[in-house]
Amino acid sequence: MSRRGSRSRALPALTTSCPCGLPAPYRDCCGRLHRGEAAAATAELLMRSRFSAFAVGDGEYLLRTWHPTTRPPRLDLDPALRWVRLEVLERTGGGVIHTEGTVRFRAHYLERGKAGEMDEHSRFVRHDGAWVYLGAM
């Protein structure tokens, strides 16, 4: 996802389900990655954590997990946009033994009360040993 932004929302309650859709509380799922306590083991987990970062308004995490050659100088998240659900549609590579991977997903959002969705096929690579978002295909 390439919507621009910095932190603009309060973090979800620690026991709230993670916005990425995995069956774990935010604090134990993407919250650990956002706080820098863990790194995404796969490209899909990085993509899920980036969706969650959009959902909670964590622009710093988004910039930190963006490849330096494609990363914008700053990010301005739209406070009128609320990311509400993620569907992972397809993935290639991106595992613990890979250096590249792709994830195709559909992100659902609300903008001023109106539902919308965004489809993207994203490319991820390992950079300095960590998965980072390279860009949309």
UniProtKB/TrEMBL annotation:
YchJ-like middle NTF2-like domain residues: 42-135
Taxonomic superkingdom: Bacteria
InterPro entries in the cross-refs: NTF2-like_dom_sf, YchJ-like, YchJ-like_M
SUPFAM superfamilies per UniProt: NTF2-like
Short name of one Pfam family: YchJ_M-like
Family per similarity comment: Belongs to the UPF0225 family.
Protein name, UniProt field: UPF0225 protein Pro02_38270
Organism of origin: Planobispora rosea
Organism classification: Bacteria, Bacillati, Actinomycetota, Actinomycetes, Streptosporangiales
